[in-house]
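Everyone, study these two lines:
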Amino acid sequence: MTKLTDNNTLRELTSVSQGQPSSDGDGVKLTRLIGNPQIDMLDPFLLFDHFESEQANDYIGGFPSHPHRGFETVTYMLAGKMRHKDNAGNEGVIAANGVQWMTAGKGIIHSEMPEQESGLLKGFQLWVNLPKTHKMSEPNYQEFPANEVAIEQGDDGSEIRVIAGTTNKGTTGPVINHHVKPTYLDVHLPAGTQFEQSLATTDNAFIFVIQGSILVGSSDNKLDKNQLGILSKGDLVTVTASSENSQFLLISGKPLNEEVARDGPFVMNTKAEVMQAFQDFKNNDF
């Protein structure tokens, strides 16, 4: 951590990862950046995937019906269309800059299928843990198309799409989550411009670079396209776009500091609870 004279503690890069090539669902090719051997989890974030391809064979199989219990799934699209459908009666299609935030709670069965047969499909999936007190809560679904995601325009040509949390200038995203109080920002910076965002000091946070390259913190540590950088504790994030226009995600959340037991689509606090989830699913109790 770097101390500043105005009582801010600047966040610095502590590690950088390229992620691990993987596949999920019915053969969807993706890069797993959290939830792999290098970064098992970053409490409360259990998984973070990036998918991007213009080849239909890389994504056309989608994610057919499958169960979840004990956490939340977040899908954010940059290109293409994806249809969500679940056994709680929720259904919707999100396109570029739209977001789906699903709370599995005590159990839900859903599918996420590409609503296209060709062209670029690009986006992210994030898994957010639920606290022990809410793992068996009722499922919930929040969907916001691009025109319902708050946008903040800067005088310097910057743009911030606010999915969750509040920017330093007071722009608040539509997603509601009282458990980990997440920040989820999609930031566009013209070359050479700077971005600042305050965060709760103890939140865990990371940055993923979508386009260009950026310099992070007082040491100006560089983060390049398709790299994920984990940030140190502190209450202020500073980012400068390098010599080209840049785009990145800043995601943070309050750690739950609870035991985590996970197996496939279920994330609970004990192994016995995970086994019960498998049994409940087998018994059609979702």
Notes: Residues 2-282 form a domain with the Jelly Rolls fold (CATH 2.60.120.10).
